[in-house]
Amino acid sequence: MEPVILVVHDTYGPRALEVPLKPCTLGRSRNADLRIVGAFISRIHALLTPDLSLGTYVIFDGKNAGSPSTNGLFINRVQVRSHRLQLGDCIWLGPRVELFWQNRSRLGKLEADRLLGASERLNTVQLTQGVPTESTQATFSG
Asked: I want to staple 60 with a disulfide (CB 3.0 to 4.6 A). Which of 24, 27, 47, 90 is the partner?
């Protein structure tokens, strides 16, 4: 299975996160495997689970089947409880928070490296702090 990249547009601006080949959580919590920042994002907003037999992932709203996120999960503008992700899908978690499901070959190596680099800089500087200042937003907006 080719590594998947989640292109994130959130409070911190555009960046990319490599999705691990294991179940992982998305949310604003510091304990989330993939941290997504926004005022309307739940602490654990969604769960990603790889489906190795089909070479893709399934995304679930909330941290488990009985506990959906506060604001819901939308894929390509349709609200869902779960969805088998396909390249190019737009994942909407709340106002000003969009995620795009891509891989390196589709995104292009240079663009993937640029976005992953922004994410690495952000991880080392900002994710342990609160909401970014205007100067840090400019630094990570590309």
From this structure: 47
DSSP the chain: ---EEEEEEETTEEEEEEEPSS-EEEESSTTSSEE---TT--TT-EEEEEETTTTEEEEEESSBTTB--SS-EEETTEEESEEE--TT-EEEEETTEEEEEEEHHHH-HHHHHHHHHHHHHHHHHTTTSSSPPHHHHHHH--
**Which tops the pLDDT comparison, 68 or 104?**
68
Largest CA distance in the chain: 45
> Domain 4-127, what architecture?
Sandwich (2.60)
Domain boundaries, the chain: 4-127
104-121 pLDDT, tens digit per residue, is 776 666 566 666 665 555
What is the model's pTM? 0.77
Neighbours of 82 (CB within 10 A): 15
